[in-house]
Amino acid sequence: MMNKNLVIVGDTAFSEIAFEYFSHDSDYKVCGFSVEKEFRSESIKFGLPCVDFENIEEHFSPETHEVFVATTYTELNRLRKRLSDSAKTKGYKLASYISSKAFVWSNVVIGEHCFIFEDNTIQPFVEVGNNVIFWSGNHIGHHSTIQDNCFISSHVVISGYVDVGPYSFLGVNCTISNNVRIEKNNWIGPDVTIMKDTQKNDFWRPHKNEAYKVNSLEFFGIQE
After folding, report:
1. Range(s) of the domain holding residue 32
2. Band of pLDDT at residue 212, cut at 50, 70 and 90
3. Closest by alpha carbon to 28, among 90, 96, 89, 84?
4. Which of 95, 117, 140 is the last residue of a domain?
5. Alpha-carbon gap, residue 28 to 6, rounded angstroms
6. Residues 52 and 42 sit within 8 Å (Cβ to Cβ)
7. Kind and range of the H or E run holding 190
8. Which of 43, 89, 178, 184 is most buried (CB neighbours < 10 A)?
9. Are residues 87 and 101 in the same domain?
10. How far is the first Cα of the chain from the last one, in angstroms, to the nearest whole number?
11. What are 58-106's pLDDT values in tens digits?
Protein backbone atom coordinates (compact mmCIF):
# COMPACT_ATOMS: atom_id res chain seq x y z
CA MET A 1 0.00 0.00 0.00
CA MET A 2 1.40 3.38 -1.03
CA ASN A 3 1.41 5.76 1.93
CA LYS A 4 4.34 8.12 1.34
CA ASN A 5 4.52 10.91 -1.23
CA LEU A 6 7.68 11.32 -3.28
CA VAL A 7 9.18 13.88 -5.66
CA ILE A 8 11.96 12.71 -7.98
CA VAL A 9 14.65 15.29 -8.75
CA GLY A 10 16.06 14.87 -12.26
CA ASP A 11 14.85 14.25 -15.80
CA THR A 12 17.45 11.82 -17.15
CA ALA A 13 16.98 8.10 -17.83
CA PHE A 14 17.67 7.38 -14.16
CA SER A 15 14.70 9.53 -13.13
CA GLU A 16 12.46 7.46 -15.40
CA ILE A 17 13.88 4.22 -14.02
CA ALA A 18 13.45 5.48 -10.45
CA PHE A 19 9.84 6.34 -11.25
CA GLU A 20 9.20 2.74 -12.32
CA TYR A 21 10.85 1.16 -9.29
CA PHE A 22 9.31 3.48 -6.71
CA SER A 23 5.88 3.17 -8.35
CA HIS A 24 5.80 -0.62 -8.60
CA ASP A 25 8.10 -1.91 -5.82
CA SER A 26 7.85 0.43 -2.85
CA ASP A 27 5.36 2.09 -0.55
CA TYR A 28 5.94 5.48 -2.21
CA LYS A 29 3.58 7.33 -4.50
CA VAL A 30 5.47 9.49 -7.01
CA CYS A 31 3.72 12.87 -7.13
CA GLY A 32 5.99 14.79 -9.47
CA PHE A 33 9.42 15.67 -10.74
CA SER A 34 11.75 18.60 -10.23
CA VAL A 35 14.73 19.91 -12.21
CA GLU A 36 16.91 22.97 -11.81
CA LYS A 37 15.39 25.84 -13.80
CA GLU A 38 18.33 26.13 -16.18
CA PHE A 39 17.92 22.51 -17.29
CA ARG A 40 14.18 21.91 -17.06
CA SER A 41 12.75 21.30 -20.54
CA GLU A 42 9.24 20.07 -19.75
CA SER A 43 6.42 20.87 -17.36
CA ILE A 44 4.78 17.43 -17.45
CA LYS A 45 6.54 14.06 -17.13
CA PHE A 46 4.60 10.79 -17.10
CA GLY A 47 1.48 12.86 -16.57
CA LEU A 48 2.90 14.45 -13.43
CA PRO A 49 4.05 18.04 -12.85
CA CYS A 50 7.73 18.83 -13.36
CA VAL A 51 8.71 22.01 -11.52
CA ASP A 52 11.79 24.14 -10.94
CA PHE A 53 13.95 22.76 -8.15
CA GLU A 54 14.68 26.27 -6.90
CA ASN A 55 11.07 26.60 -5.69
CA ILE A 56 10.06 22.95 -5.34
CA GLU A 57 8.64 23.57 -1.87
CA GLU A 58 5.97 25.90 -3.34
CA HIS A 59 4.50 22.90 -5.19
CA PHE A 60 5.30 19.96 -2.91
CA SER A 61 5.39 20.61 0.82
CA PRO A 62 8.38 19.17 2.73
CA GLU A 63 5.91 18.27 5.48
CA THR A 64 4.08 15.80 3.25
CA HIS A 65 6.64 14.79 0.60
CA GLU A 66 10.05 13.16 0.50
CA VAL A 67 12.67 13.60 -2.23
CA PHE A 68 14.87 11.25 -4.20
CA VAL A 69 17.63 12.74 -6.37
CA ALA A 70 17.89 10.58 -9.50
CA THR A 71 21.23 11.64 -10.92
CA THR A 72 24.14 9.27 -11.51
CA TYR A 73 27.90 9.87 -11.24
CA THR A 74 28.17 13.36 -12.74
CA GLU A 75 31.20 15.18 -11.28
CA LEU A 76 32.15 11.98 -9.45
CA ASN A 77 28.79 11.98 -7.66
CA ARG A 78 29.02 15.59 -6.52
CA LEU A 79 25.93 16.73 -8.40
CA ARG A 80 23.79 14.26 -6.47
CA LYS A 81 25.38 15.32 -3.20
CA ARG A 82 24.77 19.01 -3.92
CA LEU A 83 21.11 18.51 -4.85
CA SER A 84 20.38 16.18 -1.93
CA ASP A 85 22.00 18.62 0.51
CA SER A 86 19.88 21.42 -0.94
CA ALA A 87 16.72 19.33 -0.60
CA LYS A 88 17.53 18.66 3.06
CA THR A 89 18.11 22.38 3.62
CA LYS A 90 14.62 22.96 2.24
CA GLY A 91 13.32 20.58 4.87
CA TYR A 92 12.82 17.40 2.85
CA LYS A 93 13.52 13.91 4.08
CA LEU A 94 15.53 11.89 1.56
CA ALA A 95 14.02 8.63 0.31
CA SER A 96 15.81 5.34 -0.32
CA TYR A 97 14.89 2.31 -2.40
CA ILE A 98 15.91 -1.32 -1.90
CA SER A 99 14.63 -3.75 -4.51
CA SER A 100 12.48 -6.60 -3.26
CA LYS A 101 14.71 -8.78 -5.45
CA ALA A 102 17.96 -7.74 -3.74
CA PHE A 103 19.56 -9.93 -1.05
CA VAL A 104 20.63 -7.78 1.90
CA TRP A 105 21.75 -9.62 5.05
CA SER A 106 19.97 -8.60 8.24
CA ASN A 107 22.93 -6.90 9.93
CA VAL A 108 23.92 -4.74 6.95
CA VAL A 109 23.91 -1.03 7.81
CA ILE A 110 22.65 1.29 5.06
CA GLY A 111 22.73 5.09 5.21
CA GLU A 112 20.19 7.55 3.86
CA HIS A 113 19.31 8.25 0.24
CA CYS A 114 20.54 5.00 -1.29
CA PHE A 115 19.20 3.08 -4.29
CA ILE A 116 19.78 -0.67 -4.53
CA PHE A 117 18.66 -2.39 -7.72
CA GLU A 118 17.67 -6.02 -8.18
CA ASP A 119 20.08 -8.94 -7.94
CA ASN A 120 22.51 -7.24 -5.59
CA THR A 121 23.98 -9.53 -2.93
CA ILE A 122 25.13 -7.66 0.17
CA GLN A 123 26.73 -10.01 2.67
CA PRO A 124 26.94 -9.85 6.48
CA PHE A 125 28.65 -6.97 8.31
CA VAL A 126 28.69 -4.66 5.28
CA GLU A 127 28.32 -0.93 5.97
CA VAL A 128 26.95 1.40 3.31
CA GLY A 129 27.15 5.19 3.64
CA ASN A 130 24.82 7.92 2.40
CA ASN A 131 23.99 8.72 -1.24
CA VAL A 132 25.18 5.37 -2.58
CA ILE A 133 23.87 3.74 -5.78
CA PHE A 134 24.15 0.00 -6.46
CA TRP A 135 23.07 -0.73 -10.03
CA SER A 136 21.96 -4.30 -10.77
CA GLY A 137 23.82 -7.54 -10.20
CA ASN A 138 26.66 -6.68 -7.81
CA HIS A 139 28.35 -8.78 -5.11
CA ILE A 140 29.36 -6.85 -1.97
CA GLY A 141 31.50 -9.08 0.20
CA HIS A 142 31.36 -9.49 3.96
CA HIS A 143 32.83 -6.86 6.30
CA SER A 144 33.23 -4.35 3.48
CA THR A 145 32.51 -0.63 3.74
CA ILE A 146 31.13 1.54 0.93
CA GLN A 147 31.56 5.14 2.01
CA ASP A 148 29.36 8.13 1.15
CA ASN A 149 28.55 9.26 -2.40
CA CYS A 150 29.73 6.19 -4.29
CA PHE A 151 28.31 4.76 -7.50
CA ILE A 152 28.66 1.01 -8.02
CA SER A 153 27.64 0.03 -11.55
CA SER A 154 26.54 -3.43 -12.69
CA HIS A 155 28.23 -6.81 -12.09
CA VAL A 156 30.92 -5.44 -9.81
CA VAL A 157 32.58 -7.88 -7.40
CA ILE A 158 33.74 -6.35 -4.13
CA SER A 159 35.44 -9.03 -2.03
CA GLY A 160 35.62 -9.25 1.75
CA TYR A 161 37.08 -6.53 3.98
CA VAL A 162 37.20 -3.95 1.19
CA ASP A 163 36.95 -0.24 2.00
CA VAL A 164 35.69 1.95 -0.86
CA GLY A 165 36.42 5.62 -0.25
CA PRO A 166 33.90 8.42 -0.75
CA TYR A 167 33.06 9.85 -4.18
CA SER A 168 34.29 6.76 -6.00
CA PHE A 169 32.92 5.16 -9.16
CA LEU A 170 33.28 1.44 -9.89
CA GLY A 171 32.68 0.51 -13.53
CA VAL A 172 30.87 -2.48 -15.01
CA ASN A 173 32.49 -5.86 -14.33
CA CYS A 174 35.35 -4.52 -12.23
CA THR A 175 36.70 -6.66 -9.39
CA ILE A 176 38.18 -5.56 -6.06
CA SER A 177 40.28 -8.17 -4.24
CA ASN A 178 40.10 -8.94 -0.51
CA ASN A 179 41.45 -6.47 2.06
CA VAL A 180 41.91 -3.64 -0.45
CA ARG A 181 41.42 0.05 0.24
CA ILE A 182 40.00 2.18 -2.58
CA GLU A 183 40.88 5.77 -1.75
CA LYS A 184 38.67 8.85 -2.17
CA ASN A 185 37.72 10.09 -5.65
CA ASN A 186 38.73 6.93 -7.48
CA TRP A 187 37.39 6.19 -10.96
CA ILE A 188 37.69 2.44 -11.57
CA GLY A 189 37.01 1.66 -15.23
CA PRO A 190 35.07 -1.31 -16.65
CA ASP A 191 36.73 -4.74 -16.38
CA VAL A 192 39.54 -3.48 -14.15
CA THR A 193 40.81 -5.79 -11.40
CA ILE A 194 42.23 -4.06 -8.32
CA MET A 195 44.63 -6.22 -6.28
CA LYS A 196 46.25 -3.54 -4.09
CA ASP A 197 45.40 -0.31 -2.28
CA THR A 198 44.88 2.67 -4.55
CA GLN A 199 45.87 6.30 -4.17
CA LYS A 200 43.58 9.29 -3.69
CA ASN A 201 42.17 10.65 -6.99
CA ASP A 202 43.29 7.62 -9.04
CA PHE A 203 41.82 7.07 -12.52
CA TRP A 204 42.11 3.40 -13.45
CA ARG A 205 42.03 2.61 -17.16
CA PRO A 206 39.99 -0.31 -18.51
CA HIS A 207 41.80 -3.41 -19.80
CA LYS A 208 45.20 -2.24 -18.51
CA ASN A 209 44.71 -2.61 -14.75
CA GLU A 210 46.85 0.45 -14.16
CA ALA A 211 46.18 4.05 -13.17
CA TYR A 212 46.36 6.80 -15.75
CA LYS A 213 48.97 9.41 -15.01
CA VAL A 214 46.17 11.88 -14.42
CA ASN A 215 44.27 13.08 -11.39
CA SER A 216 40.60 12.03 -11.50
CA LEU A 217 39.43 15.45 -10.30
CA GLU A 218 41.48 17.20 -12.98
CA PHE A 219 40.17 14.78 -15.62
CA PHE A 220 36.57 15.68 -14.80
CA GLY A 221 37.30 19.37 -14.16
CA ILE A 222 36.31 19.22 -10.50
CA GLN A 223 37.42 21.90 -8.08
CA GLU A 224 37.78 21.00 -4.38
Report:
1. 4-95
2. confident
3. 96
4. 95
5. 6
6. no
7. none
8. 184
9. no
10. 43
11. 999 999 999 999 999 999 999 999 999 999 999 999 999 999 999 999 9
